[in-house]
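Quick one:
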Amino acid sequence: MSGVSAVQVPRDAIAVRDVKEGMHRAPAEPADDVASMAVLSSGQERGHWRRALHHTLGAVEVAGPCGRYPGAVRTFRLGHVKVATIEGGAMRLRRAQPPATGDDGLLVVMVMVSGAAVVEQDGRSVSLQPGDLVLYDTSRPVSLGFPDPFCVKLLVVPRRLIGLRDEQLRRILTTAIRPDTTVSSMAAGFLVHLVDAAANCPAPTAVPLASSAIDLLSLLLAEELGNLRQPTSANLDRLPAIKEFIERHINDPDLTPQTVAHANSISVRYLHKLFQADGDTPGQWIQRCRLQKCRGELAGLHATKRSIAGVARQWGFTSASHFSRAFRSLYGITPAEWRDTGVKALATRCPGP
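Output:
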């Protein structure tokens, strides 16, 4: 993928560079540059920070001690997502105004690389140290405070692509996710490496990598929701094994709550009770797993070599029209739009002779 590499500039100079490559944008995303970089000196006004950050986070207000804002912002687009590095001195970033009409919101995943931060949203306040990860929603007011020089890595993804209901998402927003589990440690490490490699990411792998990032984020959020769940019975320990059973048989079109209950020697009613603790139903979980598999398949390097209906059948859907409706309902875009975004981006960045 084409990108912008860091350049050396004098401390009292400002360098802003944008690369516009005409890449196809994800539906409902505001148009912006494929990649941008701003290296800002200590003598620049906060307006430069606002303009640089607008590419990544939308409209934000910037405040710093003595009006000094040294630092750098580097942003790259990978398919449907954006990744960014932001580093600077002590400052506070605040988004108070509501998003523009028609903006359904972005989810920002932030990994603290160095320094410290305090993130506030919806009456919650969380302190972050290096290695910690946090999520916040750009559709609501948010404040990011950095008391010392800092560096953060960001993944910015349309909220609809995560596939969680609002009440599920609100439970894990603005909570510190420590790198103390296999999944959280992998997610933080993958995000840091993805952001660092974005400038030189080969075009054929950019969209699949973005899809992998979304899948890993979905796995992390599912784990966090499980950690926040208040068990009502020791038998809830059975739920992970049941979910694993569903994952192993997800391509079976005959997989239903009834067959899952029978295979696990429980009643359908009790199966629903187990999933209710997660705010889900067995049918919703089965369908979401199938949709996630299809989404990954349609973002692969060879997505155009198979029909969308063929991909749907591979993962247990018996009706192409039902699959298309379910995909759009969960992710906000059609399967064709999801696949074609990557295909058109690749064709634009790697034109034939």
